[in-house]
């Protein structure tokens, strides 16, 4: 019986394949572009689209391998900020979360959210959902409401000159689909940004 690939091996394979596609070593030559108009068409980078499609096709095969062999898409991350750290699971950027992975994420939601609360104590909080601009100022009660209705939580931080932004992503459903409006209400998320009082969140991730 053939040995199964691990999560780490699949992630590494995808990273290597992505690099190969970007170099042009892999092209999906069946990919064509829709003619837009004579003015725009000359600026469409067909080779770039072929590279991207080649990687997407390979990634889809890896995702199917995960499903067939029940290989987790979770990787463990250490998030450090304000002199504190937490070790928790996230979905690898190129892999998918299996049903059992969502169960694991759910068990860590509270500890991730509580960590965010602890390291952002005294900071101003803003909520951003979907393409909402600008973020809305929120209080503790509103934040806890979002946490209660969520199923998983991820952390992000953004450091720029003289400032720090610590964000918790609270979501439900499929983490890979949560950012896209078309998957509502089955999957979705909101971001709670914490910044020093008087600062405006930059929200680089969203």
Question: Your description of this structure?
Answer:
There is one protein chain. About 10% of the residues have low confidence. With 206 residues, the protein is α+β, with helices and mostly antiparallel strands. The longest helix is centred in the first third of the chain and has 24 residues. A five-stranded antiparallel beta sheet has the order 4-3-7-6-5. Helix 1 packs antiparallel against helix 2. 26% of the residues are buried. Helix content is 34%, strand content 24%. It folds into two domains: 63 residues, no CATH class; 122 residues, no CATH class.
List the main descriptive attributes of the protein structure presented here:
206 residues, alpha+beta, two-stranded antiparallel sheet, single chain, 5-stranded antiparallel beta sheet, 2 domains
SSE layout and pairings?
Elements (H helix, E strand, L loop, with lengths): L6 H17 L22 H24 L4 E8 L2 E8 L7 H21 L4 E5 L7 E2 L2 H9 L3 E9 L2 E10 L15 E8 L11
Helix pairs in contact: 1-2
Enumerate the spans where pLDDT stays under 50 for 5 or more consecutive residues: 27-46
**What structural class is derived from the secondary structure elements?**
alpha+beta
The proportion of strand residues reads 15-25%
Estimate percent helicity.
25-40%
Task: For the largest sheet, list the strands in their spatial order.
Answer: 4-3-7-6-5
- Mean pLDDT score, rounded? 85
Ends: how far apart?
Answer: 44 Å
SS elements, strand count? 7
Please work out how many helical segments DSSP would assign: 4
Q: How many structural domains are formed by the residues? A: 2
Shape: globular
Gyration radius over CA: 20 Å
| Helix/strand order | HHEEHEEHEEE
User: Largest sheet, if any?
Assistant: 5 strands, antiparallel
């Amino acid at each position: 019986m053939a040995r199964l690939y691990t999560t780490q091996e699949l992630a590494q394979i995808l990273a290597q394949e992505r690099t190969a596609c970007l170099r042009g070593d892999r092209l999906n030559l069946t990919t064509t572009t829709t003619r837009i108009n004579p003015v725009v068409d000359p600026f469409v980078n067909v080779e770039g689209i072929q590279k991207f499609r080649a990687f997407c096709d390979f990634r889809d095969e890896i995702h199917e391998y995960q499903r067939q062999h029940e290989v987790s898409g979770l990787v463990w991350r250490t998030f450090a900020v304000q002199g504190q750290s937490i070790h928790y699971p996230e979905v690898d950027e190129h892999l998918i979360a299996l049903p059992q992975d969502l169960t694991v994420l759910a068990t860590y939601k509270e500890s991730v959210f509580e960590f965010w609360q602890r390291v952002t104590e005294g900071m101003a909080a803003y909520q951003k959902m979907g393409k909402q601009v600008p973020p809305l100022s929120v209080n503790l009660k509103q934040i806890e409401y979002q946490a209660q209705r969520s199923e998983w939580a991820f952390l992000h931080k953004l450091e720029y000159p003289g400032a720090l932004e610590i964000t918790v992503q609270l979501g439900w459903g499929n983490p890979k689909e949560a950012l896209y409006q078309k998957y509502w209400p089955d999957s979705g998320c909101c971001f709670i940004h914490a910044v020093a009082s008087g600062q405006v969140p930059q929200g680089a991730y969203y």
